[in-house]
Amino acid sequence: MTIRVVIADDQSLVRTGLRMILDNADDIDVVGEAGDGAEAVALVADLDPDVVLMDIRMPEMDGVEATAAIAAAHRARVLVLTTFDLDEYVYAALQAGASGFLLKDALAPDLLSGVRVVASGEATLAPTVTRRLLDRVVTGLPAAPPDDRLALLTGRENEVLQQLARGLSNAEIAELLFLSPGTVKTHVGRILTKLGLRDRVQAVVFAYESGLISR
Fold first, then answer.
1. Looking at the structure, do residues 80 and 118 belong to the same domain, yes or no?
2. Alpha helices of the chain — where are they, by DSSP H?
3. What's the confidence (pLDDT) of residue 142?
4. Element holding 161 (H helix, E strand)
5. Do 79 and 114 touch, CB atoms closer than 8 A?
6. Higher-confidence residue: 157 or 131?
7. Rounded distance, CA 99 to CA 105, Å?
8. Are residues 110 and 7 in the same domain?
9. Same domain, 18 and 108
């Protein structure tokens, strides 16, 4: 099945470059381009794409506000585009419902892989980048009080969530906790269900906001 993508970026040159990469893939079709967040939200409503590649800093409506609007009302999943020095808005975008992020200097195969992963209903959050992202973005946040929802988790689910929030992949969590990858995947699914979260990216955000992971 072809993955339908909308690109949202205020720089036409960036949009052109992204379109060239995506259009070269047999299973991806760029169905629209937006120069700001408001236009992106409108295109999503009109075109019902599978994935939105969303820049953060845009005029009129930024990527955070647009992500929140799309996540609240549409099935499209948002993949945030950011620079390596990390906008202060990235954490807010993930909190708003983005399913992951990519660096703007990502290689073409990584971009294509990220779009496919997000379209499949999963989240893309590169483990090595996750650690750096969260270490930097959450540093300035005030300490969060414990979240009552943590009591819904079993001891093992709590352990899995902690390692997930530190950026470990399912395979790495399985090795660390002496579990099979399939068991870890099951635990992650139960964690998302119990906490009412959309994907593992939101689980990472929850772990920091709830105080489970110290900053």
1. yes
2. 12-23, 37-47, 63-73, 90-96, 108-119, 127-137, 155-165, 170-177, 181-195, 200-209
3. 58
4. helix 155-165
5. yes
6. 157
7. 19
8. yes
9. yes
CATH code for the domain in which residue 99 is found: 3.40.50.2300
**213, amino acid identity:** I
Please name the amino acid found at residue 112: L
The token duo for 32 is 């629209």
Helix or strand holding residue 179 (H, E): none
Residue 135, in any domain of the structure: no
**How many Cα atoms within 13 Å fall on the side-chain side of residue 20?**
8
Does residue 99 sit in the same domain as residue 159? no
Q: Hey, what amino acid is at 201?
A: V
Most confident residue range from 3-7, 58-62, 164-168 = 3-7
Give the structural domain span for 193.
148-209
167 phi-psi bin (left φ>0, alpha ψ -120 to 50, beta other)? left
Among candidate residues 148, 126, 107, 104, the one with its CA nearest the CA of residue 200: 126
- pTM to 2 decimal places: 0.72
* Tokens 């990235």 belong to residue: 90
